């Protein structure tokens, strides 16, 4: 089968690999119809994670079941499914409590496992024609329709970025009427904005400096803020002051609420320096979310912070140790949530919003490619050029594949 593998910094290769075989009676084999390239894959591509060369990558996966082990009872050959990027067992302490992003049994090196990802266990990725699915009863989400239909791309986004964006909004305590600022207009930031709007937020600001991505944020109903035009936190304070209706309803003291109730860092540890975007400033987004949130507000850190980081500039950063204004966080009594998204907590509800016509996350998809074009797509997505925002790899003749 054809698959995309990591072959060293900024090198992805498409080549033939053996088709996976069932290893346990609880496994299934999935024939992949669509697989996404994620901003998280770029950390590996950039050499910012330790990863064995030859690893098949890709954790955003959907397709049709090709074969199931003897112990699999709820899905069968021919079923159309999407996989959460987190691989979970379903029976450990954390899985029992819905924390499938911290499954205790699937990764011998820690809590949490994923397909084709550095440090996330020995699982091959799904930017490939076939992928092995452990604990298939627990990890497959059943889908209606047929491959290549009007929902294919929406359903693919249920593997990661739609539930991840939604989780970011949950971590930042977004609820009806609240004000939200999101740093990063990549797929995660855009779908965090979309989720915040679905949850009823009254004002949603999205910060980035990539024109196409800011335009997409506007199309989704958010207010774009370009950090190349000046300090984005100050820009948000100013925009909020222009809102006459809100300003006129302030009681004494509320002039101190210049910022927002909820902030989301959808950038992570490869953030650009606002003042000099050619340079990296690893805590730029983290610093900004702390500044922009009003006292007693909430922060969701959904952009990744990973260690070890072989590409970091100093020994602390290589170990993921950063300085940031903890005293401000404490003084403002902010709450902060972070980590991988527990995709399975949300994916079936979000699927039902899609099926019932109430959500269309595939609005953010910019490119649909054949697997042979994956190396070029990695390169362009990594440089954030030519409008590369969300790239989906398509396999086979989807209409006939049903
Ligand atoms: N926690 C999770 O479960 C989870 C899941 C998926 C992705 N992620 C992470 O989310 C982050 C975003 O990924 P993505 O897929 O959206 O793609 P992405 O990496 O392309 O998005 C990052 C965006 O941030 C922008 N950016 C850089 N510096 C900035 C700054 N100082 N201020 C504002 N914006 C800035 C970039 O221009 C880019 O558009 C990555 O770190 C990724 O690893 C986390
Ligand atoms: Zn991802
Ligand atoms: Zn578990």
Present the secondary structure layout.
Blueprint: E1 2-6, E2 12-16, E3 28-37, H1 39-45, E4 60-68, E5 80-83, E6 86-87, H2 93-96, E7 113-114, E8 130-133, H3 136-139, E9 141-142, H4 152-156, H5 161-171, E10 179-183, H6 187-198, E11 203-208, H7 211-219, E12 223-226, H8 232-241, H9 244-248, E13 260-265, E14 272-273, E15 276-280, H10 284-292, E16 293-301, H11 315-318, H12 326-331, E17 335-338, H13 347-355, E18 367-370, H14 374-383, E19 391-394, H15 398-401
Parallel strand pairs: 10-11, 10-13, 11-12, 13-16, 16-17, 18-19
Antiparallel strand pairs: 1-2, 3-4, 3-8, 3-19, 4-5, 5-9, 6-7, 14-15
Helix pairs in contact: 5-6, 8-10
The structure holds nicotinamide-adenine-dinucleotide (NAD) and zinc ion (ZN) (2 copies).
One zinc ion binds at residues 88-89, 92, 94-95, 103-105.
């Amino acid at each position: 089968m054809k698959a995309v593998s990591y072959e060293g910094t900024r090198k992805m290769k498409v080549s033939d690999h053996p088709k996976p075989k069932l290893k346990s009676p609880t496994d299934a084999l999935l024939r992949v119809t669509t697989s996404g390239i994620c901003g998280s894959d770029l950390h590996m591509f950039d050499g910012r994670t330790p990863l064995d060369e030859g690893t098949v990558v890709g954790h955003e996966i959907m397709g049709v079941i090709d074969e199931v082990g003897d112990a699999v009872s709820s899905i069968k050959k021919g079923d159309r499914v999407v996989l959460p990027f987190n691989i979970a067992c379903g029976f450990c302490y954390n899985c029992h409590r819905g924390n499938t992003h911290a499954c205790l049994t699937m990764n011998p090196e820690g809590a949490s496992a994923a397909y084709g990802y550095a440090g996330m266990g020995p699982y091959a990725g799904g930017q490939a024609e076939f992928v092995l699915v452990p604990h298939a009863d627990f990890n497959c989400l059943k889908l209606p329709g047929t491959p290549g239909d009007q929902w294919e791309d929406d359903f693919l986004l249920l593997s990661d970025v739609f539930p991840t964006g939604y989780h970011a909004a949950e971590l930042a305590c977004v609820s009806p009427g609240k004000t939200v600022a999101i740093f990063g207009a990549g797929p995660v930031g855009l779908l965090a904005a979309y989720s915040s709007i679905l949850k009823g937020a009254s004002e949603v600001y999205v910060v980035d400096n990539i024109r196409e991505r800011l335009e997409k944020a506007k199309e989704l109903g958010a207010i774009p803020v370009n950090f190349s035009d000046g300090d984005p936190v100050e820009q948000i304070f100013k925009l909020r002051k222009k809102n006459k209706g809100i300003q006129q309803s302030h009681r004494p003291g509320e002039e101190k609420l210049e910022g927002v109730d909820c902030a989301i860092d959808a950038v992570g540890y490869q953030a650009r320096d606002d003042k000099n975007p050619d340079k990296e400033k690893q805590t730029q987004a983290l610093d900004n979310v702390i500044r922009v949130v009003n006292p007693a507000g909430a922060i969701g850190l959904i952009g990744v912070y990973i260690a070890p980081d072989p590409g970091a500039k100093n020994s602390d950063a290589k170990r993921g140790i950063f300085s940031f204004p903890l005293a401000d966080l404490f003084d403002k009594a902010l709450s902060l949530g972070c980590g991988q998204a527990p995709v399975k907590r949300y994916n079936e509800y979000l699927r039902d919003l899609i099926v019932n016509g109430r959500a269309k996350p595939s609005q953010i998809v910019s490119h649909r490619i054949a697997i042979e074009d994956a190396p070029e797509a990695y390169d362009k997505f990594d440089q954030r050029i030519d409008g590369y925002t969300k790239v989906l790899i398509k396999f086979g003749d989807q209409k006939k594949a049903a």
